[in-house]
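Hey, quick one: can you model this chain's 3D structure?
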Amino acid sequence: MGFVFKFLLIAIAISWIFSKLLQFFLRSKLKQFVDHANDLKREEERRKKGGGHGNVNVDHIPRDYEEKRSKEIRGGDYIDYEDVKD
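Sure thing. Here's the predicted structure for all 86 residues.
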């Protein structure tokens, strides 16, 4: 009778631990799935909000700055240097 009781007690403990681990992994996977779905939804909304114009013009250096810069830089002074050996 003691063997059957120990066996049932161990079986119940193992099944309880297994169910808790399964719940933990299912919740974490479900959370990952929900986060991924939310990311996809946010990206789709961002595309809808920002899209539709067709042509996008990106100036990395504005033309005014480029003209001003070309006027400022006229060359430089040559500085002679010597290599010093230790």
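One thing worth noting: The chain has a mean pLDDT of 81.
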